[in-house]
Amino acid sequence: MRAMVLTRPGEPLRLQELPDREPGPGEVRVRVAACGVCRTDLHLVDGELPDPKLPVIPGHEIVGRVDALGSAVTGFRPGERVGIPWLGSTDGTCPYCLSGQENLCDHPLFTGYTRDGGYATHAIADARYVFAFGEQGGDAECAPLLCAGLIGWRSLNFAGDGRRLGLYGFGAAAHIIAQVANWQGRQVFAFVRPGDEQARAFALRLGAVWAGGSDQAAPEPLDAAIIFAPVGALVPAALKAVRKGGRVVCAGIHMSDIPSFPYRLLWQERHIVSVANLTRQDGVDFFRVAVQAKIATEVSTYPLERANDALDDLRAGRLSGAAVLLP
Ligand SMILES: [Zn+2]
Ligand SMILES: [Zn+2]
């Protein structure tokens, strides 16, 4: 198999020819058809996530076809299209797993972080955490649903039922969640990097009722806001934008420090909450919604060998929608 491998954080990924691996008991091997590039991959490559497996193959938005089954795997057949998400496995026994919060498991493994991911021609996954994906939609177009969509969906649920929803940062996740929110009958207010006209136009094209710079005040009080951009200064900005009792959801795995802010921004029962990882139930729910809401993702594809270019384009904000690698 071929893979783009991270040997040391801070260094570019390197293309490597690796021996093919056989799936172990309970595992499936998947021939990768497409793998999305997520901001978390940038944090991994930049050394902002603690204790990665090294060397590691990044990538946790994998769409592919089952090509080998380990022993004791049931429920999948060779050739079937599947998706492999960020949550790679859990212990199933800790208090979080036992209370329906496997996303907070004490002993998890994460795809493309603490186990190898999908910047490769093949990936091996714990079959219990693999989603059957059906045949609807192209491989590249489906890949961003596996994390940008899923984590966005979990964030949207944490934001509550409010009608006026702010989205800070209009990248891969927001462009999916804006469509879901519209489908649910909500109004989307998009906050983009100040001066980023392309992102502003993109948000309006995807149905936002308002789009402006994140340095601008919201045109009306919002019921909730989701922060997708890894920028701590957006937390007080979003608190300012939400009404009494409103919620601010931080959707990323890493964020720059949050500057201090006056207590009155939080006062009146405003909430700040972060969202971590996903549960398998999130996937079951979201993939059904994605079909019902006819989510259409916009992707820029790169050959696998150009993973570093895809990461650079994501870092520089040169993308509309999501970057996807094709092996
Ligand atoms: Zn657990
Ligand atoms: Zn991700």
Structural features, described:
With 327 residues, the chain is of the alpha/beta class. Helix content is 24%, strand content 27%. The chain is built from nine helices and 17 strands. Strands 3, 4, 5, 8, 9, 16 and 17 form a seven-stranded mixed beta sheet that branches. A six-stranded parallel beta sheet has the order 12-11-10-13-14-15, sandwiched between helices. Strands 1-2 form a two-stranded antiparallel sheet. Helix 6 (197-205) links the parallel strand 11 (187-192) and strand 12 (210-213). The chain is globular. The site of one zinc ion has 8 residues, from helix 2.
Task: Describe the secondary structure blueprint for this structure.
Layout: E1 2-5, E2 14-17, E3 27-37, H1 39-45, E4 62-69, E5 81-84, E6 87-89, H2 95-98, E7 109-110, E8 122-126, E9 131-132, H3 139-142, H4 148-158, E10 164-168, H5 172-183, E11 187-192, H6 197-205, E12 210-213, E13 222-227, H7 234-241, E14 242-250, E15 271-274, H8 280-292, E16 299-303, H9 307-315, E17 322-326
Parallel strand pairs: 10-11, 10-13, 11-12, 13-14, 14-15, 16-17
Antiparallel strand pairs: 1-2, 3-4, 3-8, 3-17, 4-5, 5-9, 6-7
Bound molecules: zinc ion (2 copies).
Residues 38, 40, 60, 86, 147 line the site of one zinc ion.
